[in-house]
């Protein structure tokens, strides 16, 4: 892994490392982590759970080449790759750590010299408006990013509030200074992605407009208001759209220069200035899901002034407030960086999706008002149900309750009568499998986080789970499994549906809904229908009831699994590990299978067709860089060798998380990888969200204090903590010894202290 280039300001902090950080926790966060290779994080400026993610984009790789998928685009899910030598500009919307993408809206780029409206190429940046840059002149912090644009001799600085990005560009002396607004730019871009763009020049400092795209979200509209701190002296645009047969009577105007309206599918606009040496031009760029009027109101509410430093300081103070929810003492400076960067990554999303007045665009494409809750979007639920949302039930319960409310609003607006699967910006994109909103809702209800109408929530869960035309559900309900000859990734779907059904069982039991309880208790056992006892693995079954003959337990391609193979997915029964172990032949057979996951070698050929799995994220056959096996290290706790959980967890923490640009072994997936790190570093993990139980592991912290929203604190202490002392001899909760490796959420939220006694030798 590449060694992290630490800015001078961080090195100064580290010279006095002997004391643990107190209040300035922002100093430990390095947003560069995960920006190289597979992490797919972005380094730019954003507020906690912010609607604006203002970040540099380093290339313009198209989604499509010669009519087919361009595999190189996958590197740019977050718009930025650490190895790239040039920056194209700074756009205002990004996903963090995803394995597919969209967004990259409203790219700004300051330039000097002859006006160039094309981005140029990485090999010849001088052929366009892009610029070379050096990491030595780049700085990334929460809510702040800066870089020197070498080709234009401009320092670019970025900061952000929730709904407004603020730019500060320090120009050289120039009679040809420009700020380009590229409305063609996008992440996972292609020629027809823009359905329409529109700008209005309101005056010589204010521009408003919108962009409509058809991408991962097929009906996405983003409105904006852009304000300059200095009037421009001229402006114009170029429309790169294909020639239209019908142009109406707009053709009587020269719309390319100093014309106050711009409309088209492929627009790039420019605004010209004359600058003095060292002159700063600032830009406020506000977004809205509803209207340009909403964007203006957001700007006036959140940044009513032009003090860039004030915005940075206030946004970083908000980050410190959020990061202070967990105060940890850790063994090394890299551990501090990893811990607080992970905490930062978990607070990037889901993202706010409403104006300051509560209005937002709904799934039905109508405007709605959020009443008594914050509306959120960016629900990567196949990933985040596992640890991120359970993490929020510990450190962000109010926000998580609002996220549940946002999911229920999505359900109310859905013509399919379904909760979100993978949704963003008033769209369902149907990515991945399962109906894991059910897990998030169940976990929030069972842990007492969601205090709304639980029966309404259960009804939404049940309706979602009964929607037969969704992804093989009709077959699943009729046969008790998804048949591979009728629907691909059938084993993964069967296993994940069964888990989600178990989540419904938990709510129905709590609410006394006996009819639902009976129906879904039966469905929750469907995982058994795809277990082939003759080989000891989960295996795809056909609609005639026989198992698929051509089958490879190691391959991740066309074997009935999604982003995983039979070896790891056979361990996916998080809701009932005891029954799984019994089914697989008891400890004598189960433990060797689990051991082999971490010790065998998975040759490259078995995952060469799965772009979400790369060598960096693999330990043996255990794919930590992808989600389906995130719980498996904790399964030893249900066997006669629980000490192996402690060993494996500490090994994974050390190998898969580094304070380096490529420090994440796989996509961070909207914070899921980071949430795994945080839970595991603290010594416990939610193996089955929907249960109030956490499975204990081996803490990597020396001690930590979680500040709970109810005003109480929960402390973790690891006595005799060291790199070698990974084994737990005893655990006490408030001075009383725990007889099982289990922590209950109800005990955690009461406050108290969890004490681990560590040793270099396992307690067998």
UniProtKB/TrEMBL annotation:
Alphabetical keyword list: Calcium, Hydrolase
Positions of the Glycosyl hydrolase family 92 N-terminal domain: 28-288
GO aspect biological process, one term: carbohydrate metabolic process
Domain Glycosyl hydrolase family span(s) in chain numbering: 295-759
Molecular functions per Gene Ontology: carbohydrate binding; peptide-N4-(N-acetyl-beta-glucosaminyl)asparagine amidase activity
Cellular component GO terms held in the UniProt record: cytosol
Cofactor: Ca(2+)
Pfam families the record matches: Glyco_hydro_92, Glyco_hydro_92N
Top-level division of the source organism's lineage: Bacteria
Record's subunit section: Monomer.
Identification of the protein by name: Sugar hydrolase
